[in-house]
Write a structure and sequence with these properties.
Layout (H helix, E strand, L loop, with lengths): L5 H10 L14 H10 L1 H6 L1 E9 L2 E8 L4 E5 L5 E7 L2 E5 L3 E4 L4 E4 L5 E5 L3 E8 L4
Antiparallel strand pairs: 1-2, 2-9, 3-8, 4-7, 4-9, 5-6, 5-8
Length: 134
């Protein structure tokens, strides 16, 4: 199983040019952002990379690039989450079923649902998460 080490993720994000995470209006070129993720060391070494695009007190948006065959080990969030595949094909392994999330698809998960994410093809997806103010 491929996973990203926290120290590696920190180094990649520290090398990135800073951008506003909060604001009245934020705009992103998702193609350019995904290309950048695929050039960074975590993608090359571990098979996946991520960048937080929006970080409001009650809401987050994260862009994730996942290489074919790479996996994000089973985890869950304490908040509701949606996953929208922009390119490629991603498979979610849930306890009771497996769901393929194809380009143009949106999947919503209630909070605390354990899941593992697998890249069936080189893929890019957006995660949107509600976020507790606590």
């Amino acid at each position: 199983m491929t996973s990203i080490e926290p120290s590696t993720a920190k180094r990649a994000s520290e090398r990135r040019a800073p951008h506003p995470l909060i604001g009245t209006v934020l705009s992103f070129d998702l193609t350019a952002e995904a290309d950048e993720l695929r050039r960074e060391e975590p993608w090359l070494a571990r098979g996946h990379n991520a960048k937080t695009l929006v970080k409001h007190p009650d809401f987050r948006v994260v862009l994730v690039a996942l290489r074919r065959g790479a996996r994000m080990k089973e985890h869950h969030t304490d908040q509701c989450v949606t996953m929208q595949t922009l390119s490629g094909r991603v498979r979610l392994h849930l306890r009771q079923e497996t769901v393929d999330v194809l380009p143009g698809s949106l999947l919503a998960l209630e909070r605390t649902v354990p899941h593992e994410v697998e890249g069936i093809e080189d893929s890019v997806f957006l995660l949107s998460l509600g976020w507790s103010r606590e």
